[in-house]
Amino acid sequence: MAQKRGFEPSGNAGDGGPPRKFTHRRPVTDYGSSLARWIFDRRLDFRPHCQAGSSFAEEGTYLKELLPSISATTNVVAQIPIRHIHASLNKIKHPINMVKWTPEGRRLLTGSSSGEFTLWNGMGFNFETIMQAHDSAIRALEYSHGADWLLSGDQDGIVKYWQTNFNNVKVLQAHDSPVRDVSFCPTDAKFVTASDDGSLKIWNFGEGEEERILSGHGWDVKSAHWHPYKGLIASGSKDHLVKLWDPRSARCLTTLHGHKNTVSRVRFQPSQGHLLATSGRDMTIRIFDLRTMKDLCILRDHEKEVSSLAWHPTIPSLLSSGSLDGSVRHFVLDELSASTGGSVSVVRAAVSVPHAHENAVWSMEYHPLGHILCTGSNDRSTRFWGRPRVGEIESFSERQYTGEGAYESRNDNKGKKKHQPKEEEEEADDDDYLIDQQMPVPGAGPTPVHPMGNMPPFPPGMDLGGALPLPGLPGLPGLGFPPPPPGFDPTLAVLAAMQQQQQQQQHSQQNQMPRQ
Q: Of 387 and 378, which is predicted with more confidence?
């Protein structure tokens, strides 16, 4: 359950006393209470609100009754993480290519284009440690199913073995081109790598030796994924094709021709394993049913190329995706309609976050419990998203997530003052919790104000918009105003203009008052 950070109003209290002290509170996600309640209420007949198919009332008092995502049976939309919790930034900022939760869910690991590993706390979202893991950009991260090992691949085609304490024990030159994806088999005895050299390779994990090469794609292989409990590998390539492979014989079982552009991601459904999601630069996501060997539906709503995919770990029908325009969209497959006449159903996004990032979303992954979604972007930030609290309809209606124009149109001056402390606290987070990285902070002084002597002259005939006469500016030839006529008092003219403007404002306010 995500706890919303609190704020104390700053400034004078209105009683003439000293300014109130701003209370700094960090966002904290504590899922212990919701798990304990879910375990305590596992008997469906124990309490009325825990019966199957029921949902809590939309009241703030039911916040303490919030259960984990695994307990969701009917109201899937309420489990979609659209509420922004925190944004984490490194001191030296680089694009975030990969995000990966540790198997126990206590920390988040990010891989950047500079080859660095950054570890963030999964509950307080503060910085923990940073290390130089690769000499080039990190392109792939994958934990073993047994949670004992981590694999990483980089731009130079190198794959590294890491223990849970980030001790590097082996380095493999897996490919001559960048490694785009790595995936473990269900038993962790083997893993597959996908590369821009157009091939996939199956490796013996224990010996670190290449066993088979899967050849068949005509261009760069951008993604590969091993089925969570079957001997089946899916791959997507720049040749617009999705292929299913038998890892034992290195034979291509079938080829899917649905996409019209580069296939960026392929991911099997983790909880049931019946579905395969593929995304591409044709701005669509296709869901393939392994039981019928047919396309189940097409997910549309993205306005740019789809760059990342993530299945929910406990809700089989929830799929999230990120795009090159920085948007994040969530699809609920339960909403698809039955196809008629052989046509494939089209599903629109259940919830969209149009400006989740300022740039492309390269990677996203759900927390193992499913209550938090993490996204890494080309805008050099890592963002955490949680489920909305009771009564929060537009949880992402913020300046940095909906765009400046949308924010100004939705929020009045009162709303701006309400969100101003949040922006100040984000800046305080970076100052307080990133000092351990021991990296230089580029000095950022105030923007210099250029003297008026460097200002170019106004064009001839420029209308000053009815502005009051200004005194001549020294050092600016051609901009000096003519002297006032004899007997002219500038002070009286200014007072008269201010009084006239005040009368006009009062007159316009009276005209806008509703008639009774």
A: 378
Q: What is the CB neighbour count within 10 angstroms for residue 354?
A: 16
Q: Is the pLDDT of residue 240 over 60?
A: yes
Backbone phi, psi, residue 74, to 5°: -120, -45
CB atoms within 10 A of CB 175: 23
What residue ranges in 247-358 does DSSP mark as E strands?
A: 251-256, 263-268, 275-280, 284-289, 294-300, 306-311, 318-323, 328-332, 345-348, 351-353
Q: In CATH, which of 2.130.10.10, 1.40.20.10, 2.160.20.10, 3.30.300.20 is domain 77-411?
A: 2.130.10.10
- Report how far residue 100's alpha carbon sits from residue 152's, in angstroms, rounded to the nearest whole number: 11
Q: How many CB atoms lie within 10 A of CB 391?
A: 10
CA-only gyration radius of the chain, Å: 29
> Token pair 């007072």 is at which residue?
495
Buried b (16+ CB within 10 A) or exposed e, 260-297: eebbbbbbbbbbeeebbbbbbbbbbbbbbebeeeebbb
Side chain identity at residue 403, one-letter code: G
Least confident of 52-56, 245-249, 267-271, 377-381: 52-56
Mean pLDDT over 140-156 rounds to 96
What are the strands of the beta sheet with 190-195, ordered from one edge?
179-184, 190-195, 199-204, 209-215
The CA-atom distances, in angstroms, between 451 and each of 64, 444, 462, 477, 478 are 58, 20, 22, 15, 17
What token pair was written down for 224?
């590969």
> Strand locations in 381-478, DSSP E?
382-386
Predicted local confidence at residue 488, as pLDDT: 52
Q: Are 38 and 71 in contact (CB under 8 A)?
A: yes
48 — pLDDT class (breaks 50, 70, 90): very low
153: tokens are 């691949």
- What residue ranges in 238-304 does DSSP mark as E strands? 242-246, 251-256, 263-268, 275-280, 284-289, 294-300
Distance CA 125, CA 148 (A): 23
Domain ranges of the chain: 2-71, 77-411
For residue 113, count other CB atoms closer than 10 A to its CB.
Answer: 17
How distant, in Å, are the alpha carbons of 24, 81, 470, 507 from that of 498? 43, 52, 15, 14
d(CA 399, CA 420): 10
- Return the structure tokens found at 257: 């021709």
Cα dihedral: 90, 91, 94, 100 (round 10): -20
User: Rounded to whole angstroms, what are the CA distances from 363 to 109, 173, 466?
Assistant: 12, 24, 53
Distance from C-alpha of 127 to C-alpha of 437, rounded to nearest angstrom: 8
Q: Tell me what the pLDDT averaged over the chain comes to.
A: 76
User: What is the β-pairing status of strands 221-226 and 209-215?
Assistant: unpaired
